[in-house]
Structure formats: C-alpha cells, structure tokens
Amino acid sequence: MNWLTDFNTAREEASRTHKPILLQFEMDGCGGCKKLYSETYTNSEVIQEMSEWFILLKLDLIKDREIRREYSAYWTPSFYFLDYKGKSYFNFNGFLPPEELRVILRLGYSEIMIPRGKYDDAIQVMNKDIFNLKNSVLLPRLELQIAVANYIKTKDKAVFMKKLKTIQEQYPDSLEAKMYFWE
User: Fold this and answer.
1) Nearest alpha carbon to residue 85 among 163, 8, 29, 5
2) Per-residue pLDDT tens digits for 88-138
3) CATH number, domain at 92?
4) Distance CA 3, CA 129 (A)
C-alpha cells in the first residue's frame, strides 16, 4: 500500500483524484498497529479496497501533534475518514481483523459520500463483495447504512421498512434491530 506521511500532500492528492483520505494514526510500540500490519494489511482484499477507494495517510500520534489535536485523536491505531479538504466524517479506534476493517472502510466511505449526494457511489462501494462479509458482527450496521442511502436516494418508504424488518429478523440482538424508525 502506498501510504503518504504528509497531510498537505494527501489533501492535494485527494483533491486531484477525487478520493477521500483514510488517515491512520499510529505510534511506536502500538500493539494493535503491529497486529494490523501482520494480520489485516496482509489481506489482499483489504489492500485492494484501501488503495482503490482512498488516499492513504499515516501519521504518528505523538510526532504529528497539531493534526492529532485537530481531530481530537487519542488512541492508536485510529482511523479517520476525511474529505479532500481534511474534514472528518467518521472515525474508528482500535485494531480490526480483515473482515471487520473491510466493513469499516465501506461505512467510512459512505459517511463521506452520502452527505455529498453521491448515493450511487456509496451504495456501490458498500455492496461490493458484501456476501464475503457475512461473518462480520458489523454487517447489520452496513446493511442499515445501505438501506438509508437507498431511502434517501429513492424516498421509497416501503422498501426501506421491508429492509428494516429483515434486519430485525436476521439480527434480532443487534443494535440496528433495536433502533426506532417510524411506522
């Protein structure tokens, strides 16, 4: 993976390519960071998706204090999903195995694209290879996010409510099954 290490260079590249930035904070001695590199970043799907969808930026939590303060970062590894201007739309703290990180990548991407009206882009990324993410504990969250993007795009309440019912039936103990939506 091609990690940049300069914030301004990443912003310029994101502006040029129209890709969001995936900022990862790490630091020396971070056990979760080491595990990311030995387990998660060796996965070919993770490598491909991160490289295809994002400008990758890696910063040191201690050395890059000014940027750390801007995002109120306090943990490593941590992931911040930024637009080309550097505005943060979504973040996650901690190590994740490949399947879980792949879901987080989709959620982070969608959180940047949906507010910009890029529903089709968000839906396409979220649905990519979703059948291989069936064991992820985060799958109900991803399915809900897909349903939300589709609803905002189409305003089809019946389809949205049907998907919510399916989530409740398939994942009755999930947070998403317990969320209240209108009747």
Assistant:
1) 8
2) 999 999 999 999 999 999 999 999 999 999 999 999 999 999 999 999 999
3) 3.40.30.10
4) 24
> Structural domain of residue 141, as residue ranges?
7-174
Residue 181 within a domain: no
C-alpha dihedral, 152 to 155 to 157 to 163, nearest 10°? -40
- Is the distance from CB of 58 to CB of 4 less than 8 angstroms? yes
CB atoms within 10 A of CB 95: 17
- Identify the bridge partners of residue 179 per DSSP, sorted by sequence position: none
Mean pLDDT score of the chain, rounded to an integer? 96
Could you tell me if 25 and 77 are in contact, meaning their C-beta atoms sit under 8 angstroms apart?
A: yes
Type of residue at 163: K
Tell how far CA 4 is from the center of its chain.
18
In a domain, residue 38? The reply is: yes
41-74 pLDDT, tens digit per residue, is 999 999 999 999 999 999 999 999 999 999 999 9
Token pair, residue 140, equals 């109900």
